[in-house]
Structures are given as C-alpha cells and as structure tokens.
Amino acid sequence: MNFRTMRLKRFELCILAFLSLMIIGCQEEFTPPVSEFADQLVVEGYIEAGDLSNPTYVLITQSVPFFNELDANQYANLFVSGAEVSVDDGDKEVALTELCLSEIQDPVFQQAISEELGINIDEIEVDICVYIDLFDELVREEGRSYQLTILSEDETLSATTTIPPLVRLDSFEFREIPGEPIDSLAFLYCFINDPEELNYYRYFTDDDFGNLNTPFGSITDDIQFNGQEFEFPLQQADLQDTFDFNTYGYFNVGDTVTIKWTTIDKAHYDFWNTFEYSLNGQGSPFTGYTRILDNIEGGFGIWGGYNVQLEELVVEKVE
After folding, report:
1. The whole model's pTM is what?
2. CA distances from 44 to 12, 190, 272, 303 (A)
3. Euclidean distance between CA atoms 135 and 266, whole angstroms
4. Beta bridge partners of residue 175, listed in sequence order
5. Of 311 and 3, which is predicted with more confidence?
6. Residue (of 44, 47, 52) closest to 305 by Cα position
7. 292-317 pLDDT per residue, tens
8. What pLDDT is recorded for position 289?
9. Per-residue pLDDT for 27 more than 60?
10. Mean per-residue pLDDT for 15-19?
11. Rounded CA gap, 33 and 315, in Å?
C-alpha cells in the first residue's frame, strides 16, 4: 500500500468515525455502574535465559481504583516492602533479596538497574524496591518451569512460567522507508526460519533515551508463518510525547541499535497481547471492555520467562 492510498484510507476512516459519532450523539448517555473496589497485589516479574540475560526480579505494588488520582506520596506507598519472595527452578528454591534504590551506592549497579527498569534513578523521587536473585542462584535455561511464591502479610500469591526454546532471527536488513524516501531514516526487516510448533515472540529495541523498550505491537505468535521462512518488519520503540506519523518506528541511519528478540510461552503471550489490545482501545467509544489475561494466583500481573537473542546492529541501508 503506497502513501497516497494510506491517506485515502485514513480519510475514509475519518468519515466513518464522523457518521458513527452523529448516530451515537442521538442516543442517551450511558454511565457504567462503579463497583466496589477490591484491593489486591500487582506483580511484575521475569526470569531470562540466553544472550546477556538479566537477573531474575519481581516488583510488587498495591492496586488502586481506576478513577483515583495519585500524588507523590500515594505513588511511593504503592510499592510493597517486606514480602517473602521465592522462586523454585525444579532443583532448589531460592529466596529473592529485597533491594531498594536508596540502598544502591555502586554507580555501575545503579546504571544496570536503571536500564532494566527503564528509569532514570537521578530523576526518581520514589524509593522503588525490587526483589532480585542477587547472587544468580537460579538455574536459568530453556525447557524449565519456574514456580513463584509471594508471602505478604496474610496474602499468598503464586505463579508458574517456563523458558521455551529460543527461535532465533536469522538475519537483518535495513531498507528504504515506505512512501517518500528519507535519506536519514531506515526500516528494519528481519528474517526467521520458524519451526513447525506454535511459538510466541516479543521484542524490544533502543528507545530515544537509550533504554530497551517495547514498541506498540511488540507481541506476536507465528500462526501466519508457522513452519515457514518468513520476513517481517520491526519498529523502533518511540516514547516521545508527540506522535510523528512520518518518522514513527523508523531507525536513524548511522546509529548503532540494540534488538532484543525473545521467545515466550503462551501464558506470557496472552498477558501482553490482551494488555496491548486493552491499551489500543483506551478512550475510544467504539471498543468494549478487554479483560487482561494474567497468570498470578491470588493477585494480578505477570510472572514471565524470556529466552533472549540480543543483537547490536549498525543502521546502514542496503543498496
């Protein structure tokens, strides 16, 4: 589809949206009932194997009602401290160490934590606490299952994840962007030899601040290319406040960029797939409620395994 066709499609969508709004505007406004809020713990934790894999860690926070506004003090109180967090790798159970940002004095360690969490420690006023396998005691390898257990006051949470076999990207190619070429920008295409069984993938790239982050649409299964040699584009993560249709997802020629390609299991995929779908519908009157499929028993969130391929690429367009 060329750029002119894309513009026509966008114009048609605008007309359809306008007509829909006129129809909806004639209907009586509906205000959904507000149910009583049930407080629960929210978990985000990961275990990785593969290229330069990160240490195992878990973040625990308190949930808040959707319509609540948070000030700095309330935000600081969201992080749960003093919990007992352990992971069983099938051979042994390892207690994770609670580590708070205020306790980290080593600049190298500070930088590593900052990059993993996607934050700038110098700009954070909240003392974030993370539970981490500080001495790398867990055996992290593909084919294993990992049982997470959290004890916090009178609550018990649990979850299980796996690290599936890694399906690697075979090669990479930077090409001209669609539509009108721009010398300084390139589009990334990747090539994969996908195995017969159903697989699930998620990827990360450098963002504008040098941290690894996920672009929107970072999650996919291989239903469309199962068992095939296949090429597809990857977009660069873009966390800018303003959206530029002309540059979004493209890479700057001459930059050195990092691509983190991961294989995940189905439960991990289901969480991020429904999470991204839910984000896509926020604020739209045309989308229904989407329940995010999590895997935490006794709470909410994700405990996920990654098998990692890490690539550092120089952005040079093919002739």
Report:
1. 0.81
2. 40, 29, 12, 6
3. 29
4. 187
5. 311
6. 47
7. 999 999 999 999 999 999 999 999 99
8. 57
9. no
10. 32
11. 51
Furthest C-alpha separation in the chain: 64
Residue of 291, 239, 295 lying closest to 46 (CA atoms): 295
Average pLDDT over residues 197-204: 96
Here the tokens at position 273 are: 């797939």
Cβ-contact 294, 274 below 8 angstroms: no
Query: What tokens does 234 get?
Result: 């990857």
* HSE, side-chain direction, 13 A CA sphere, residue 15: 6
Where do the H-state alpha helices sit in the chain? 3-25, 72-76, 107-117, 266-280
Q: What is the pLDDT of residue 106?
A: 76
Question: Amino acid identity of 154?
Answer: D
In the chain the domains, ranked by start, together with CATH numbers, are 41-162 (2.60.40), 169-314 (no CATH)
Q: Give 92-131 pLDDT, tens digit per residue.
A: 999 999 988 777 777 777 667 666 665 666 666 677 889 9
Residue of 145, 136, 153, 144 whose CA lies nearest to 60:
153
- The number of beta carbons lying within 10 Å of the beta carbon of residue 106 is 9
Comparing 277 with 70, the larger pLDDT belongs to: 277
State both tokens at 133.
């396998």
Tell me how far apart the alpha carbons of residues 232 and 13 are, in angstroms, rounded to a whole number. 26
Q: How far apart are CA 190 and CA 200, in angstroms?
A: 16
Structure tokens at 295: 């895997």
User: By the 8 A CB rule, do 69 and 51 touch?
Assistant: no
Token output for 268: 């991990």
DSSP letter string over 121-187? GGG--S--EEEE-TT--S---TT-EEEEEEEETTEEEEEEEE-PPP--EEEEEEEPPSSS--TTEEE
62 Cβ contact list (under 8 Å, min separation 6): 39, 41, 42, 77, 78, 80
Q: Is 102 helix (H, G, I), strand (E, B) or coil?
A: helix
- For the chain, state the CA radius of gyration: 22
Q: Which amino acid is at 274?
A: T
